[in-house]
Design goal:
about 350 residues, alpha/beta, Arc Repressor Mutant, subunit A
Length: about 350
C-alpha cells in the first residue's frame, strides 16, 4: 500500500523507482562498493530493503546502533550481524547451502569482523553475491577510537580480496559520508577504490501528483485534484511527507486538517533531528532559521546572527555553513542557500 508509514519491503510497494533499482543492479555488477545517497525521507531505506528482499544480504541501521551508546565498536557490529541469524538461515536454506557460520555461535570477542566478512563472502560464492548494507553509514565515523579508520581498512580488504561480497552504504548526510570514505585522499585506506553512486532524488511535481492520486485511488476514495495540487505545492516531492499527508487525509477526510496534522507530525519528527544538530552547535539552528526566513546569502546570514547578538567570526560562519551543506540540510546555487527539504523550512519558520 502506497500510504503506509512503515518502510517498504517489496518492490511493488514502491512508486516510480525502477530507474534506481536498475542503477543499483548495474552498480553492484561493476563495483564492490556502492553508495545510495539522498536527503532524509526520500526513500533510500525502502529502496534498499526492497532490493535486499530480492537478493541475498543483510541490513545494519548505523544510526540506531550509534543512538544506543553514542559510539560503535567491533562487538556492536558483530552482535548486530549475529542478530540477522534468521535472515542468514533463510538465505542458506533458499539456495540449499550447507554452511556452518561459526560467528553466529560465539562471543564477539572470540572473532574479528574480517573473519565474519570472509564467512559471508563464502555465502556469496554460492549465491552469486552477498550484500552487507549499512544504512546511514556516515555514523560509522564513530566506530572505534580513530574515526572509523579500522573499518575503512576492513572495507578496503573486502574490496580487494572478497570477490563475492558487496558493500552498500546509504547516507542522508552526503558530504559527511564522502568525507568519511575519503576515497580521493592518498592517506585513506580506501584511496583509489571507486564506488558506484546512486542519487535518490525527491519526486518532481508531476510524479508527486501521480503518487498522491494513485494512493487515493488504491484506498478507494476520490480527492479533488486541486487539493492534491495544493498538497504537492506545500510538501514538494519528499515521499515521506507525501505518505504522511495521504495517511492523515484518509483519516480526516478533510484537506486542511490533514495538512495541519502532517506539519504537526513533521514538527515532532524534526525536533529530534534538530536537537541532535543543536548538540553539535546551537549556531546550526540559527543559520537554518535565517535561511528559512529568507536570509539566504552569506552576508545576510552573518547580519541576521549579529542582530541577534552573535558576532561570529567569518571563518567560523563559513565552516558551519559548509558543514550544513555536507549534512545535506542546505544546498547552494549561485551563492544563494536553500533548505533542501521545504517542510523543514516551514517548521523552522513556524516552530509552534
Amino acid at each position: 500500500m502506497l500510504f503506509d508509514l512503515r518502510p517498504k519491503r517489496r518492490r511493488e510497494e514502491i512508486f516510480d523507482r525502477e530507474k534506481e533499482f536498475k542503477e543499483i543492479e548495474q552498480s553492484l555488477s561493476s563495483y564492490p562498493m556502492v553508495l545510495i545517497l539522498g536527503i532524509r525521507r526520500v526513500g533510500k531505506s525502502s529502496i534498499l530493503q526492497a532490493y535486499l528482499n530480492e537478493n541475498p544480504g543483510i541490513l545494519i541501521d548505523c544510526r540506531e546502533l550509534y543512538a544506543e551508546s553514542g559510539h560503535l565498536t567491533k562487538d556492536d557490529l558483530i552482535r548486530e550481524l549475529q542478530s540477522k541469524a534468521g535472515t542468514l538461515r533463510r538465505i542458506t536454506s533458499k539456495f540449499k547451502i550447507s554452511l556452518n557460520l561459526r560467528f553466529l555461535n560465539i562471543e564477539p570477542r572470540e572473532t574479528s569482523l574480517r573473519e565474519v566478512f570472509k564467512e559471508l563472502d563464502r555465502i556469496g560464492r554460492e549465491t552469486g553475491k552477498f550484500i552487507i548494507a549499512f544504512d546511514e553509514a556516515q555514523y560509522l565515523r564513530f566506530y572505534g577510537s580513530r574515526g572509523g579508520k579500522e573499518l575503512l581498512a576492513l572495507f578496503a580488504y573486502a574490496y580487494d580480496n572478497l570477490p563475492n561480497l558487496r558493500l552498500v552504504l546509504t547516507g542522508s548526510e552526503i558530504g559527511l559520508l564522502h568525507d568519511f570514505l575519503d576515497i580521493t585522499n592518498y592517506e585513506s585506506p580506501l584511496y583509489g577504490r571507486p564506488a558506484g553512486e546512486i542519487i535518490v532524488e525527491p519526486f518532481n511535481r508531476e510524479t508527486s501528483f501521480e503518487f498522491l492520486k494513485s494512493g487515493f485511488e488504491e484506498a478507494g476514495i476520490n480527492v479533488d485534484e486541486k487539493e492534491i495540487e495544493s498538497a504537492v505545492e506545500l510538501l514538494d516531492g519528499v515521499p515521506g511527507w507525501l505518505v504522511t499527508f495521504g495517511v492523515e487525509y484518509l483519516r480526516e477526510k478533510d484537506f486542511e486538517k490533514a495538512i495541519q496534522r502532517t506539519f504537526e507530525i513533521a514538527r515532532g519528527l524534526l525536533m529530534g533531528e534538530l536537537k541532535e544538530l543543536r548538540g553539535r552547535s546551537p549556531r546550526y539552528i540559527e543559520i537554518l532559521k535565517a535561511i528559512a526566513l529568507g536570509y539566504n546569502r552569506w552576508s545576510l546570514i552573518r547580519d541576521y546572527l549579529r542582530v541577534r547578538g552573535d558576532r561570529i567570526p567569518d571563518p567560523r560562519l563559513y565552516a558551519l555553513i559548509e558543514n550544513l551543506k555536507k549534512m545535506s540540510w542546505i544546498s547552494e546555487e549561485n551563492e544563494t542557500y536553500r533548505i533542501t527539504d521545504p517542510v523543514v523550512a516551514t517548521v523552522l519558520k513556524n516552530p509552534k
